[in-house]
Structures are given as structure tokens and as C-alpha cells.
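pasting for the record
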Amino acid sequence: MSIRHGLLALLERGPRYGSRLRTEFESRTGSTWPLNVGQVYTTLSRLERDGMIVQDGSDDAGHDLYTITDDGRAELRNWFETPVDRTSPPRDELAIKLAMAVGAPGVDIREVIQSQRHHTLKAMQDYTRLKAQALADVPANRDEVAWLLVVEQLIFQAEAEARWLDHCESRLVRLAEAAATEPADAPGPAAARGPDRTPAGRTRSKR
């Protein structure tokens, strides 16, 4: 998740201070990616260094306000218009775990898969419950609509992971069945004759 661009998107709506940005970010994403205040202010400092935002006065409570600049708006427009790069995906812990579990001594990979499937399906049920709660009332504002999009993405992601786990288990079963039915290596011609026999089957004389 790009915290940098998320904060720029919120600042485009008007000046904000750090803790308000944190609250609005979490509200928009349903606290799926919680932030701490330190992350927010570190990111704001870098955005200010890069000319994307400026400090612009303070509110009545004395909070320092940040305002997006023209460079910040240009960066935000570019982010919205550029597809998310999927050619270099982040490392996935589950994929790495299963890859390492294949052939690992003392590891039953099918148990690993079943345990993960149980967890993934439970997460999908929890997300589906959250979606039902969100749809109980028609989303009234853009924060509620944004959260609905996020939770639906989590549901689709969990569904895809469950299908992939089913595929992994099926592949392992097919490989195990193929290994069990593979014939033993047939002896070669030399082995069939034995080391002390001639091609005609006569025993070599010993000198």
C-alpha cells in the first residue's frame, strides 16, 4: 500500500494535520492497513522534502497543517493513471513456504495446505460478514464505498488463494500416484547376460 500517495490523495481534499490524515486513511481503508502517527509524520516529512507538500499555517487547536503543491498534484495524477506493476510482485510467504515444504524431511505438505486452507476460508467468511454489515445500509458516503471496495478485494483474494491451495493439493496427489505406478528400471542387455557369458550364451573359458 502506498502511504505516500494515499496521504497526497487526502491532502488534495484540503489542508490536513498528521493525526487527522491517519484517521481518514484508516477510515477510507477500513483499518485494513493501520498506520501509526510516526509513519504518517515520517512520510509527510519526505513529501515536504520532495516538494510535494508544504506546511501552511495551523488550525485553531494549534495543529500544523499540510497542503499539497502543484508537484504533489502531478505526482498524484501520475499514480492514478499508471497501472500497478505486477511484473515484480512482492514475495509471498505462503508460496515460499509451500515451495520449501516440497520434499522437506519430516514435513507433511498436505497438512500444511489443509491448515492454511482452514485459515484462509475462515478469513474469507469474516470478510464476507463485514461486507454484509456494510451492505445492511446503503453506503452513505465515499468512505463507506471505499471500504466496501477494499473488503471485496480481500474476499476475492481469499477465494483465489483457496482455489490455488486446492490446485496445489491436486497436483501433489497426481505426482504421488505417478511415482507409485512408475515401473522399476528394466535390466539392460549386459545385466541380463551376466558378466561371464558370451553373446551366444556360452560360458567364457578361463585361461
